[in-house]
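Deliverable D4.2, example record:
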Amino acid sequence: MKAYHLNGHAGAGGLVRADVDKPEPAKGEVRIRVEVASLNYRDLLILDRVGEGGLNGRVPLSDGAGVVDAVGSDVVRWQVGDHVAASFFRDWISGPFKTSYVSSALGGNTMDGMLAEYVVLPATALVSVPAHLSSVEAATLPCAAVTAWHGLVARGGMGKGDTLLVQGTGGVALFGLQFAAALGARAIVISSSDEKLARAKALGGSILINYGDTPDWDVALMKATDGEGASHILELGGPGTYDRSLRSVASGGKIVQIGVLTGFGPKPDLARLQWENADIIGITVGSGEHFTAMNRFLTDNAIHPIVDRVYDFDDAPEAFAYLRTGSHFGKIVVKL
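Output generated by the structure prediction step:
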């Protein structure tokens, strides 16, 4: 079968085509014929540290969707032909997060990912794809969509009448925007592109701020909300946005901490959280249970993911390069 492997070169040179044996499912396992895989910012971070060693031969990408191709013994939940997607954390099926789940993240330090023609996973690591979605759309869900759902809905409790701040127009941001619109929450979107803001408005954004023209976007946000701020903030930027997010959160609000888009190591002044009785919710994707609940919501509300570009398998390196530009609106996928 065809696959991509990481090798010892950081950056674009670290992604190479490979021809390898098709895997066979063992007891309790399922083989998926991957139809589409999807990229996340995390995949760039992994690619950039390939040169440090330890990742040679790893199949990249956590996200993918396809069709059950074969099942091992004792598998009763899945049948050949079922349309499925893989959970980001192979072992986080339900319940609270445990540190031990970290090593089961697909396409990372210890687990192969989805940029291969066939993938074998435990039957428990799969979820059914919503019937109204194509494989291209379903492949975008495991990381970005589940992250937004887990942070904003499962733990954040966002609902009608709330106000959400969305930073940018990448995958997590747009899923958060779509969830807010479906739940009846007001959405504030910041971006450096008027074109992207116009597209975000069509998805349900009601307050639009160009942070290129308005660097003090937190001041503009507070003015636009009559001094109340945002009840929910998808904090995607990291050190470059964190202090402004703290100044934008409403009393009793929630900052859903996800991103590292501007780097690592934020050292914000958290004093305002105490005075406003606000919370920070740390989120790293979610469980299979979160994924399944979100899929029901997508179905009930006929939500379709926003796909920016679709690349052929042979052009996967170009997909990584395009992601690095940061010019995308929504998700980038690779068809196998």
